[in-house]
């Protein structure tokens, strides 16, 4: 539904996680009988969780740990681990920086050139650890780095920019041919980020295996403030999922929708799946893990940009192991641990045995549902009253 926001100017209403709720189903299912498996192209995963390609979250050890737990972690091919043989000193400098000095320090640290030999080595280290090797780079480097990564044995390439489109014009050179890239690499390619039905549909035509949904919702991202762009995650996920379903009916090929960012707790994750996601990608949530390399800090991929930084460094702390974050047991009440358990329980309450069935659950507009009856929690700043 659109509304007039001024003379002859309409704007469509969009919704975020805090504005909607999931309606319980007509029947319930034992959470232990639910199946959280999902796919990206030919690859199957036991749990639908992806750790985003941010240096404060994913290194080789984290990627291996995530893989062994059934999920997927993406390593940034333009990050610290392909610029430095041993990035420990860089991590230490970033952790010690003041909020005021952090942007300049990150710009300096990321000015070190990328070493192609390290790209191959990191991929091989992840594979040796027994996990699928997923790697990420920006579109302008995708053709070259993608070929290097595929040759080294990468299982997935994520081509990730702030906004991705199938059509791109530039007077400064030939743009990346996404269709050619997807065809030539012979490995699943995920493209992002996108927030609209039409743009998602055009990206699916390139032959990609997955779409990242979300512009600016990440905890460390400042694109919405710096550029003023973005669409709330519920609406963008619903719209892109509709494109997926239309494309599947038209071609018989299923392109996975990955909601990327904006989820602060397990309830938001459940809402993302109900909105149509096949997987969710998170950064700050996993940056809290003891296995994460960021020493309790998390920063956006575009923060080190020397031209226009669009991220910030935030302190998330180190709260628990990755296994506890994913599978519990939970020792906190805010939905920051046992994400898989919460997802299974939600599936049980709506009567969904699979992720595909969860996508069919009813959603209502309910912006006040988090506050209803929570006066004591709000007054005492506990539970749902901490925000």
Give an account of the 3D structure.
The chain has 387 residues and is of the alpha/beta class. Helix content is 34%, strand content 16%. The chain is built from 15 helices and 16 strands. The protein has helices at 60-68, 88-96, 102-109, 116-128, 139-152, 178-185, 197-204, 223-226, 233-251, 266-274, 284-287, 322-327, 339-350, 355-358, 375-380, and strands spanning 2-6, 9-12, 20-22, 38-40, 43-45, 49-51, 72-76, 134-137, 156-160, 189-194, 210-213, 256-260, 279-282, 297-299, 313-315, 363-365. The strands form 5 sheets. It has an 8-stranded parallel beta barrel, surrounded by 6 helices. Strands 1-2 form a two-stranded antiparallel sheet. A hairpin with a 2-residue loop joins β4 (38-40) and β5 (43-45). The protein is globular, with a radius of gyration of 20 Å.
